[in-house]
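Readers of this paper often ask what the protein records in our data store actually look like. Nothing more is needed to write down the fold, since each code stands for a local backbone conformation. Below, we set out a record of this kind in full and without editing:
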Amino acid sequence: MTGGKRRAEFLQTYIDHNQQIQKDGGAVERVGIQGHFQASLIPVPEIWRILDQSGEFGLPLEITEFDIDSRDEDTRA
């Protein structure tokens, strides 16, 4: 999960990889999500959309990293 222009591409690649692993019989126990943001934050409804799309695997979601690199305290809050 990023705020960059390639967010949709990265998410689809991640989903495709997970689907292929499951199709090939690999064990997937949960979906890990990282969020690294700088100047380009994304709105909360977009975050929910990404989480909903990631939840389509029917597996627990785990946010392993979430940070906002900004000097603005309100933005970080």
